[in-house]
Structures are given as C-alpha cells and as structure tokens.
Write a structure and sequence with these properties.
Layout lengths: L7 E4 L2 E4 L7 E4 L2 E4 L12 H33 L3 H9 L7 H24 L6
Antiparallel strand pairs: 1-2, 3-4
Helix pairs in contact: 1-3
Length: 128
C-alpha cells in the first residue's frame, strides 16, 4: 500500500506540501504556536515570496479595517451612539431589528475579525 501523500496547497503560484507533526505545536509563554513547513519542487527561494504575500495581505486587511471603521463612524454619527453602546443595547433587545442595525452589527463583527487576522499576520515570524 503506497504511503499517503501530504495535502498539496496552492499558494503564491507554488505547490507546497504542508507537514504537520506533534512537534509543530509548541507551548511557549502560555501561547500555542504553530509551525508551517513549505516545500517547493523548484529552486526559487520561498522566503521573499512568502514575506511579500504576508505584507500584501496585511496591507489589504488594513485597508479593510479603515473602510469598516469609517462605516462604523457613520452609524455612530447617524444614531448618536458608540458602536460598543449600540451593540450592548442591540443584544439586550433594547433596540428594534432594522436593516441599518443588522448592517451595523455586521460591520462591528467584521472589524473584530479583520483586526484578529491582521494581528495574526503581524505576529508571524519566518524562521531560518
């Protein structure tokens, strides 16, 4: 029976194999760290490509954060509430369900996800 092949991942125009092992997850300073190994059949160095892709993705996330913050500011100005105060009232059924309020909640949650992703990218360190 042939050995199972690693799952191929198409990234940055390269085919990479992800190898995960128990050693890939290290516990340091109460933080779970993941390790990703990229293997390319070509001779082209991967580091600069990966760094450029991470930088570009972070730039796109930051642009999304700015747009989302602008949308939240518009809702806050329109309704005279901070987003945090709005969300607290909305979740406690103090405010009615409207299309604007549903959009406001969506924008607020989107901002949280975008910030989490940006923080994750900022924390990535490329070894070697």
């Amino acid at each position: 029976m042939p050995a199972a092949r690693p799952h191929p991942l198409l990234t940055l125009g390269l085919i990479a194999d992800i190898k995960c092992s128990k050693k890939s997850f290290l516990r340091r300073k109460e933080m779970l760290m993941a390790e990703l190994v990229l293997i390319s059949p070509g001779q082209r160095p991967l580091r600069s490509l990966v760094e450029a892709a991470l930088h570009n993705e972070l730039r796109l996330l930051q642009a999304g954060i700015r747009r989302t913050e602008q949308r939240l500011c518009a809702f806050e100005a329109q309704y005279g509430l901070s987003s945090a105060e709005f969300l607290q009232r909305y979740e406690n059924d103090v405010l009615p369900e409207t299309l604007d309020f549903a959009e406001w909640v969506g924008e607020y949650r989107l901002l949280e996800r975008l910030r989490e992703k940006a923080d994750t990218l900022r924390d990535i360190h490329i070894a070697n």
